[in-house]
Design goal:
The protein has about 850 residues and is an alpha+beta fold. It contains 16 helices and 45 strands. The strands form twelve sheets. Strands 1, 16, 17, 18, 19 and 20 form a six-stranded mixed β-sheet that branches. It has a six-stranded antiparallel β-sheet with strand order 4-3-5-11-8-9, with helices on one face. Strands 28-27-26-25-24-31 form a six-stranded parallel β-sheet.
């Protein structure tokens, strides 16, 4: 449907409102609020009863929720996240469970032409009855299930019954029908893959109503879905198209009023029609105010209001916030292979971020507060991209709204990971509707940058030996690969192309396995030679891909976090409880082996926890520095992983309880727009500057060499111009150190860049492995300081101190900075954040540093 195009002049800043045309203003003033006679929603989240088919249990249920958390709420099982309870709770996922609700319709049922019963999320295999009539079977955790119940709904005493079947038994039945084996039986259920167990998560097979339930009654016409396609955006013009999915229960038309912020409203006619139909209304904005990723500019968002009128009555309203920007995935042949980077508003962006997994194994428990804190923590360390990993769930709308407002672009995997999948017609039709639901839901978000088909499925087929281990014949292998192509090279990209044509689609992450040389020449790479391949950290300097979408190393959570889920009797290295929360089969050994290479190895648990975090920060820091130095050859660093789904020793930089590990604190330097690092060329050390700024920076570089007894050995200053988007060596450090009489194991180098009246970047660099440094006793002193109602710590040292770590027995205390290096004569001020009920006194905060361990 083609409508008139209206050119609208939007000011750069929303400092004045353009007066609406008199006719349209009068129309809106005369219109009433949305009429309850035309549209009504009734939540159905209260009053549910949960029972098992055997009759052993009958208890009140929470919706949204799941069986595990209801049993926990009633005290019928121990906390699944505590100690070693995982093994004893596996029975829950093997039973049939029933949810029942008796309810009254809170409205005149006969007064509506259409009444839908809507489940936003059912986990996963379930039959649904209303008043003893079977509505249908749900078989996909990621779909919205909608049923027209107008003919069977009563005003009083309705009975809703949902029976959930154990996913494992359903998967076994489906698997047995194939003439060959697939790598994972979980692939036969459209259920969050990670809940079947991962190398950082437990095995808890959940069942339940994990999202909202409601009745939606309506007459006449409604907006089912909408988006604003950004067909072309630059500083001069934004060419946009409003796309609406309208549904009518009678031959009805109307009028759409679209308004962005306090600008002039646009009005479009909706022609009469019946049933569901798609309408498109193009329009333009001159001089748009652009949205930028974090670190590149402002995250300006227009307030979008969409109202549907029939005659003068408001029928439906939709609201959201929209940022105007262009985004491209640039893949161009070059002298190396093929580029892989994102260009935003015409400027190449170096992607700095992490992989995100569900923040709770019981996904309904993930609160908006926890989501907000995680994403704010990502922004705080200069991230500009989050990869939503394909083994979890699609996050809720609040996640993407936060990414929109914080400037965090989203690499969005579809929920497929680490297995081959069925490819029969029924399975593909189910997946297609899942993709349609999710693409329609998420496409309106500014932050969404890329759709990716899966995580490591292509890699697994070609490199993990399934053909041999599962005894596939050549015919089996060919059929399974054709099924892969049908799903990830045909079905999913076709859905994206049809519904969200302005965003790129990438079939599989990574595009090539890390063991092959071509993985570093094109596409994205998951480099696991370090950790899985047991290669030393130094390999990170050689193995730099075009876009590094996974790489990582484990560390333990803080001692304060450990005390929340490990009993006092289990707080020692290698305890049964600790090992129950280490899901990688070689994890404990690998941490120890890498620690032994580069760090001292303590025997006390609290010291070992501290050292494991230093190891993680050291290794991942080496990787990020090498990747950023390689700009523009390399244009993305997304480490594995941002967060945890339960209390565990893992690759996360933020543990399950929200406590930052040493790595996350170090990201403040590693992901800053200006990075100092040490690169090596033919065995010589060079100081490098890497800039992600969009403009040139002119300033003064200051370099001071200190011996580890605190004596300054040399001072060097120079004027420097740092081009935008550049990475280059500034000077050779070895010659300066030779002149100063400094040795790599007995010195550190302080570097500062001063420009525009302030210090733009500052860092203390070390040239020897941590265990080889000739560090002296630091003499740390920590003092509480109260200033303007806030609590601060003043930290000082008598000798150069490496990796000063502040800790408290109270896990609710957050430090504005931690795991920092410190020179004598500096006063380090660290702000403390904590709930009002906590009282802190001198001596409550403990400070240690690497110096303490190299003296033992």
């Amino acid at each position: 449907m083609q409508a008139h195009t209206k050119i609208v002049n939007f000011p750069t800043l929303c400092s004045r409102c353009i007066i609406l045309t008199a006719a349209l203003l009068l129309f809106i003033q005369l219109a009433s609020c949305t009429s309850p006679k035309l549209r009504l929603e009734q939540p159905l989240n209260s009053g549910w009863v949960l029972s098992d088919a055997s009759g052993q249990y009958s208890l009140s249920a929470r919706v949204p929720g799941c069986v595990h958390t209801d049993l926990l709420h009633h005290g019928l099982i121990p906390d699944p996240f505590q100690a070693t309870h995982e093994a004893e709770l596996q029975w829950i996922g093997t039973r049939v469970w029933d949810y029942r609700l008796q309810f009254d319709a809170g409205f005149d049922v006969a007064g509506f032409q259409r009444t839908d019963l809507i489940f936003d999320g059912l986990d996963t295999e379930a039959d649904i009855w209303l008043n003893d009539s079977l509505l249908g079977r749900a078989g996909n955790m990621f779909r919205t299930w909608r049923f027209d119940v107008g003919a069977m709904l009563r005003e009083k005493n309705n009975r809703l019954h949902i029976r959930f079947y154990p996913p494992d038994s359903m998967q076994e039945i489906r698997h047995s029908k194939l003439p060959f084996l697939l790598p994972e039986k979980r692939a036969f259920s459209r259920k969050a893959p990670f809940q079947s167990g991962w190398d950082w998560g437990p095995t808890y097979i959940t069942m339940g109503i994990w999202k909202e339930v409601r009745l939606e009654a309506w007459n006449s016409i409604r907006i089912n879905n909408y988006t604003i396609h950004q067909q072309h955006v630059d500083e001069q013009t934004a060419r946009l198209a409003l796309e609406l999915e309208i549904e009518s229960v009678s031959n009805t038309g109307g009028r759409i009023v679209l308004q962005l912020s306090c600008q002039e409203a646009l009005s479009f006619d909706v022609p009469e029609g019946n049933g569901a139909r798609i309408l498109r209304f193009p329009f333009e904005i001159n001089k748009p105010h652009l949205w930028w990723p974090n670190g590149m500019g402002e995250q300006f968002l227009y307030d979008v209001s969409l109202e549907l009128f029939v005659k003068r009555e408001k029928i439906d309203t939709k609201k959201h916030r929209l940022g105007l920007r262009s985004i491209e995935l640039v893949r161009q042949a070059d002298s190396i292979g093929e580029s892989f980077f994102f260009r935003v508003n015409g400027i190449p962006m170096y992607a700095k971020g992490a992989n995100y997994i569900p923040a709770d194994h019981f996904v309904h428990r993930q609160t908006s507060q926890k989501t907000r804190q995680l994403l704010v923590d990502a922004k705080e360390v200069h991230m500009n991209m989050i990869r939503v990993w394909g083994g979890g769930v699609y996050p809720d709308d609040a996640f993407y709204e936060l990414c929109d407002s914080l400037g965090l672009l989203v690499w969005q995997d579809f929920m497929f990971a680490c297995s081959m999948y069925p490819f029969d017609d029924e399975f593909l039709a189910n997946v297609k509707q899942e993709a349609v639901d999710q693409v329609k839901r998420l496409r309106k978000h500014t932050s969404l940058a890329l759709w990716c088909g899966n995580n490591e499925v292509d890699e697994g087929f070609h490199n993990w030996g399934w053909q041999k281990s599962l005894a596939w014949s050549d015919a089996d292998s060919a059929a399974i690969w054709q099924g892969y192509l049908a799903l990830f090279e045909e079905l999913l990209p076709e859905v994206v192309s049809d519904l969200d044509p302005r965003r790129p689609y990438w079939p599989s992450s990574p595009s090539t396995g890390w063991g092959r040389p071509e993985s570093l020449l094109h596409g994205d790479v998951h480099y696991w030679g370090v950790w899985w391949g047991e290669e030393p950290f130094e390999k990170y300097r050689e193995k730099v891909g075009r876009f590094n979408s996974e790489f990582g190393f484990q560390a333990m959570p803080s001692m304060a976090s450990l005390r929340r889920y490990i009993s006092p009797e289990g707080l020692y290295p290698g305890s049964k409880e600790l090992e129950a929360h280490q899901k990688h089969p070689r994890g404990t050994k690998l941490i120890h082996d890498y620690m032994h290479r580069d760090f001292p190895v303590p025997t006390q648990l609290d010291e070992y926890v501290f050292m494991s975090q230093l190891v993680q920060a050291y290794g991942i820091g080496m990787a990020i520095e090498a990747q950023r130095r390689s700009r523009p050859h390399s244009m993305g660093s997304l480490y594995w992983q941002l967060n945890d789904s339960w209390p565990v020793t893992s690759w996360s930089s933020i543990d399950y309880f929200g406590t930052w590990k040493a790595l996350h604190y170090r990201l403040k330097e590693l992901y800053d727009n200006i990075l100092f690092s040490i690169g090596q060329d033919k065995g010589r050390n060079h100081l490098w500057i890497t800039s992600d700024l969009s403009s040139e920076l002119d300033g003064e570089l200051s370099l001071n060499i200190f011996r580890l007894d605190g004596q300054m050995l040399a001072e060097h200053k120079m004027n420097i111009a740092v081009p935008s988007g550049a990475s280059f060596p500034v000077l050779e450090l070895d010659s300066l150190m030779l002149l100063a009489g400094a040795k790599a194991d007995n010195c550190c180098v302080q570097v500062e860049l001063f420009a525009n009246g302030s210090i733009q970047a500052k860092r203390l660099l070390w040239l020897a492995r941590p265990r080889d440094l000739k560090l002296l006793p630091a003499g740390l002193q920590v003092k509480l300081v109260l200033h303007e109602g806030e609590t601060w710590l003043n930290v000082t040292t008598k000798q150069p101190a490496r990796q000063v770590a502040l800790s408290s027995v109270n896990a609710d205390i957050r430090f504005s900075d931690n795991f920092f290096d410190l020179l004598p004569g500096e006063d380090k001020m660290v702000r403390l954040s904590f709930p009002p009920h906590i009282k802190i006194a001198d001596g409550d905060i403990k400070a240690v540093c690497l110096n303490d361990f190299l003296q033992k």
